[in-house]
Amino acid sequence: QLRRAKLHVKRAIKEKKIFTVQGPYPVIRRLLWARGWVERKLHRASSQPQQQRGIQKKLQKEEVGDGAKQWEAVLDLHSEAARCGKQQPLGTTETLHAQWPPQEEEEEQEQCIEDLDGKHDLMSHLVQDQVPYFIWTNHCSTINWQLLRQDQVVNHYTRVDAFATKDGLCRNLRNLPWFAQADPDSFFPRCYRLRDVDERQAFIEDFRLTAARSLLKMALQRPGDTLAGPAQQRPKSSKQLVPMSQIHYSMTPTAGPVSSLVEVALQICGQHLAILRHQDIDGDLTFPRMTGTNWDHFIQDYYRVVHEGAGLALSRAQTEQCRTLLQCLAEHLPQLGMEGDHNVWILKPGAKSRGRGIVCTDRLEEVLRLGGCCTAPLAQANRWVVQKYLERPLLIFGTKFDVRQWFLVTDWNPLTVWFYRESYLRFCSRPFSLRCLEHSGHLCNVSIQKQFRAAQSQQHPQLPPDLIWSCHQFQSYLAQAGQAGAWHEVMVPGMKAAVVGALRSTQHLVGSRKSSFELYGADFLFGEDCQPWLLEINTSPTMAPSSAVTSRLCARVQRDTLRVVIDRKNDPACSTGAFELIYKEAAVPTPLSMGLKLMVEGRSLRK
After folding, report:
1. 3-state SS string over 156-214?
2. Residue 552 shares a structural domain with residue 448
3. Where are the coiled-coil regions (predicted)?
4. Which residues pair with 420 in a beta bridge?
5. DSSP state of 487
6. Domain tally for the chain?
7. Which of 72, 175, 176, 178 is the most exposed place for a label (fewest CB within 10 A)?
């Protein structure tokens, strides 16, 4: 066995089949072993240095004594050393750091890998002085990129925070129209960085305009609101709007309607529509602006209607004008349908994952209170972003869900994107309701929902206990609901377009490296019309088997990833599993920045 192990190691070194895996990826290890690769393991340092020195002495004496006894002795020492201690440095030729930083992205435990005869342990020690040619880690910060060789394959790129953080996606996706004929507002809920003064003010204006639109929607949806008499009816023409300075509305008791509030909302939305139509550019229209005090009164009256149930006094003419104005706004605002009428926003730390620190709120002052202190150094480091909440999501059994969709990037120049045909759904543990903004009904993260699984009294009986569905189960549900074609005709094409758009908008910012690749996990919500909305993109997506569905799918995506990045190099016609190549652009030549003779030569012109 020892001789066979040494021959296997010799062949692996010759073929450059040495790999290193850091993190809980037992599937990757088994798949590489099956391909003839040898792992250069990260040993656990023993609390007794004598044990480590004993291992080396046994290996040095491999030419002496009985092979079987030596094998058993080495394995005994390996087993003893593995039971204690911390991570040990990889050696002098390291491309990975000795001290792994604590990983906040995933809370996964290393699974036991079958190595009954211990041959992989021994082969690992035989290649401790070799360079790993395939490196799979949890995070790119564990890699010393300056020491990497060109033939070392790594599962990460640098500077991917341009799209793999909430702050980066919010900042860069708005530049998409410069790179492609696409509108990010059609697949990414509008988002603002609160640490930026201009964006914070833009959010305040957006909240106010959304509140005005919400009032128009409520005026059409509430059948019990008061209809005003003929004397209070407004003219039907939108060009006869009353100047803002001449509108006065008063607060009435809670039980009564708020008079003239719809009038103000119509005026605000009419002005906004004129701006969207660019009618303000030539100076044909003059827009009286609401002062800060007027806005405060308007928002407080809006709260009375939304949160306290105050009625709205409007005429039949106003009702018709609300309907016409909303139809005109829908032509210019692709998010009008999904934004609902409660003006709910979601506040997120810009660089955290697993739902940590997220707050849903429908009050402007609460957002400014939670994220308004971003001028402080600590808060500025957190990079809070606020994003419009999807108030009208597609529900299953009255419950909100999102979709984890994998995709793989194997090159950034030319940009090459592979889309995985398999995905899975994550459900909330409680029914969806905008009256209660608790995490149990609005955040689908597994790490969040596992805190509420114990109390399943409000969970729909047809939902699975582990709150996970495969995309095939979802397609069956859609077929039963009469939307059999929605998945392949609307949802998947929309997700592909969103992924490619996010990558193209940040392509120039990411550190491109020819021998790297990276697997990402994108999270999507679907509107009532089945249109996908991109929430975020995650690096190092979890491969923990949290359910029967994820256990099967996570193993498959790791298997197919190796097919694309390893097998396809030797055999371009090999199977890539469920990965589908959805985008590959023409290579862009890198411009020369040095060595050019930038001098203009010529003769002066005579008069």
Report:
1. CCECCHHHHCHHHHHHHHHHHHHCCCCCHHHCCCCEEECCCHHHHHHHHHHHHHHHHHH
2. yes
3. none
4. 579
5. I
6. 3
7. 178
Residue identified by tokens 């104005």 is 325
Mean pLDDT of 424-439: 89
Distance CA 339, CA 210 (A): 8
Q: Are residues 331 and 450 in the same domain?
A: no
Chain mean position to CA 511: 19
Which comes out higher in pLDDT, residue 104 or 415? Answer: 415
Q: What is the pLDDT of residues 195-236, one digit of tens each?
A: 899 999 999 999 999 999 999 999 888 755 554 443 344 333
Same structural domain for residues 480 and 525?
A: yes
Indicate the residue among 337, 363, 389 that finishes a domain: 389
Q: Which of 63-67, 154-158, 228-232, 381-385 has the highest mean pLDDT?
A: 154-158
In whole angstroms, give the CA distance from residue 261 to residue 79: 75
Look at residue 477 and tell me if it is in a domain. Answer: yes
Q: What are phi and psi of 484, to 5 degrees?
A: -60, -35
CA–CA distances in Å: residue 522 to residues 140, 278, 315, 537, 543? 18, 35, 46, 4, 14
Establish if 589 belongs to a structural domain. Answer: no
Q: What pLDDT score was predicted for residue 377?
A: 43
Specify the 3-state DSSP secondary structure of 370: helix
Range of the domain at 300: 190-223+259-279+288-389
Amino acid making up residue 508: H
Residues 184 and 332 in one domain: no
Task: Report the CATH number at residue 172.
Answer: 3.30.470.20
Q: Is residue 236 part of a domain?
A: no
Any domain includes 592: no
Residues 466, 357 share a domain: no
d(CA 109, CA 102): 13
Of 109, 111, 90, residue with least CA distance to 99:
90
Boundary residue ending a domain (389, 404, 433):
389
Domain match, 401 and 500 both: yes
Write the CA distances from 295 to 290, 307, 320, integer angstroms. 6, 18, 25
How far, in Å, CA of 520 to CA of 3, rounded?
41
368 shares its domain with 446: no
> Residue 175 half-sphere exposure, CB side, CA atoms within 13 Å?
15
Helix axes 119-126, 67-82, angle to 10 degrees: 90
Give the DSSP H or E segment for 217: helix 197-221
Instruction: List the structure tokens of 400.
Output: 């909100």
Most confident listed range (281-285, 375-379, 551-555) = 551-555
Q: How far apart are CA 141 and CA 496, in angstroms?
A: 28
For the entire predicted model, the pTM comes to 0.82
- What is the average pLDDT score of the chain? 81
Using left for φ > 0, alpha for ψ between -120 and 50, and beta otherwise, residue 387 falls in: beta
Work out the pLDDT band at 351, boundaries 50, 70, 90.
low
pLDDT in tens, 52-90: 444 444 444 444 344 333 434 433 434 443 443 333 333
235 cis-preceded (ω within 30 degrees of 0): no
Is residue 488 located within the same domain as residue 427? Answer: yes
Count Cβ atoms below 10 Å from residue 391 Cβ, excluding itself: 18
